Amino acid sequence: MKEASGDLDAIANLIEHAPEGFSVYSGDDSLTLPLLSIGGTGVVSVASHIVGNEMQQMVRNYLAGQVTAAAMQHRQLLPVMKSLFTAPNPTAVKAALEMKGVKVGPVRLPLVPLTAEEQQHLQSIVQPSINFFVS
Asked: Structural domain tally of the chain?
């Protein structure tokens, strides 16, 4: 199940009372690590379109018991995660993919492209992160 309510208490209750083999995935990138810590399985991720390898490594580190490394990665990824939701999805992620050189085309109505100001803000967060994580 993809869980995107943001209510960790309710998610913990769901996990606690779920039948064996029932998996709960975070539907909110920024709650991936907290959800894993209460028994979640993984994430249905928007940020992974931009920093997929880094998200995967964060989850792998957590599952391998390298909690400090996973927490550090989470903190580093958080600005990217948050910046992708400054406009209705998938507007910002499409813009970020274009910044990364992936041609995805414009959003369709009723969505509208980012304003120049929103585009500049997104680029100020995403572009340094892309350069940081690539190296």
From this structure: 2
